[in-house]
Amino acid sequence: MVVVDMQSTDETRSVLAKLDVRILDGTWVAGMHERCLEANFDLHSRCSYDIIWFFEADEVFSDSLAREVARWIDPEGIEQISVPRLQLEQNFQRCRWYPEYVHRIFSKGTATKAGHTLDYKGSVQRVPTSAGFLWDLSNCFRDNWLQREKNQAELWGGMHRYRCVPFHFTMAPVEMCTGEPETRLLNQEQWTWTRSPFDLPDSLKSLVGVTDYRIYLRGMGFLS
């Protein structure tokens, strides 16, 4: 077993020292599993197997869980799987906007791509991740959004950088966007929201109800 320790400040190192594991020093990035994976990909790439899994401190890997995971692994379809964050067996949220579900299972071939993934070829075709692993597996953007909408205020998204123009966005209900357009600090990056719907493809507007949601855009020249 190879353990990538991302600058832990608890008893992780002392516990690992008692086990027959190889410890690699990693880099912690803004509390985001996907970005930590991206930053430490050179370390993860040393692993022998194709699947990389982030575990929480109180989780236990079992044969039954391994079989459940194996059912969903599809190298030509699902590239990342999101799993609820649990702490002491309770759902855990860092703050209001932080997703309840975090991508924690990756195929090594796509592990350098951070964030949720959209297929964007003039229209939104699918989201090759699950909205709720072990509960509501979804490869459809509409289903993904509707399932997440029940439990969280914002949806994070990102294009595959090697497939199309980078495009990162998050959505929030209109009632949360009061006052004049402003710049907010989300996940240590500046995002700006606009009062008018962004010029998205009609297919995306119809899927997510863009007229009812403000869209936050990372500074990439989309807003004047």
Radius of gyration: 18 Å
Low-confidence stretches: 93-101, 111-224
Main sheet overview: 6 strands, mixed
Strand content: 15-25%
Strand count: 13
Number of helices: 6
Shape: globular
Give the rounded overall mean pLDDT.
Answer: 48
N→C terminal distance = 50 Å
Overall SS class: alpha+beta
SSE string: EHEHHEHEEEEEHEEEEHE
Strand order of the largest sheet: 8-9-10-13-12-11
Number of domains: 1
Helix proportion: 10-25%
What kind of assembly state do the chains in view correspond to?
single chain
Model description:
By secondary structure, the chain is α+β, with helices and mostly antiparallel strands. It has one domain (2-218). Helix content is 19%, strand content 25%. The strands form 4 sheets. Strands 8-9-10-13-12-11 form a 6-stranded mixed beta sheet. Strands 3-7-4 form a 3-stranded antiparallel beta sheet, with no helix packed on it. Strands 1-2 form a two-stranded parallel ribbon. The protein is globular. Mean pLDDT is 48; it is low at 93-101 and 111-224.
Please specify the SSE layout and strand pairing.
Blueprint: E1 2-5, H1 12-17, E2 22-25, H2 33-39, H3 41-44, E3 51-53, H4 63-72, E4 80-84, E5 86-87, E6 90-91, E7 101-107, E8 117-118, H5 141-149, E9 155-159, E10 168-173, E11 183-186, E12 189-193, H6 202-208, E13 213-218
Parallel strand pairs: 1-2, 8-9
Antiparallel strand pairs: 3-7, 4-7, 5-6, 9-10, 10-13, 11-12, 12-13
InterPro entries: Nucleotide-diphossugar_trans (IPR029044)
Protein name: Putative glycosyltransferase
GO molecular function: transferase activity
